[in-house]
Write a structure and sequence with these properties.
Strand order of the largest sheet: 1-2-3-4-5
Structural class: alpha+beta
Shape: globular
Order of helices and strands: EHHEEEHEH
Oligomer: single chain
Helix content: 25-40%
């Protein structure tokens, strides 16, 4: 078996990441909106994208978003997205992606790494708990209507 490698995602990985995120969210996202967000985020030094691969096969994706939060008085990293292809799960790609995100967050001076997971994803909760994450917050979400003049619609 080839060695698992973790590396930064780039423009050339946009379609692969789009497919993975649509699977993660269990929906077909707006492709123009996704492309805009992906390309914008690639240029933001506070956002880092990582891929896991064996040989030429991309197995997973993770994103790190770093923010200066007043209530922490320090930078905090958030693991925004993590997905490993279903057929590749259990082989270490997810753990390696989380480790890469954690290392990058520490190198950026983050004092905490946070992650949110849908309440119905019980196996995902266990995955994060097994990597030292503690469930000590509630995450409340409220959908907002997009404005009609939104260029991403």
């Amino acid at each position: 078996m080839e060695e698992l490698i973790i590396f930064p995602a780039g423009e050339e990985h946009l379609d692969t990441v789009y497919d993975m995120i649509c699977k993660l969210e269990e929906t077909c996202l707006s492709y123009p909106g996704f492309c805009h967000a992906y390309r914008t985020n690639l240029g933001d030094k506070r956002i880092r994208y990582f891929l896991a691969a064996r040989g030429e096969e991309i197995l997973g994706f993770a994103s790190l978003h770093i923010e200066e939060l007043l209530h922490h008085a320090s930078p905090v990293g958030e693991l925004q997205e993590l997905i490993v292809r279903e057929e590749a799960r259990g082989a270490g790609a997810g753990a390696a992606l989380v480790a890469a995100v954690e290392t990058a967050a520490q190198a950026a001076g983050c004092t905490q790494l946070e992650v949110c997971a849908n309440v119905r994803r019980k196996a995902t909760h266990r995955f994060y708990e097994n990597r030292g994450f503690v469930n000590d917050h509630f995450n409340f979400c409220k959908p907002l209507d997009r404005q009609r003049d939104d260029p991403l619609v």
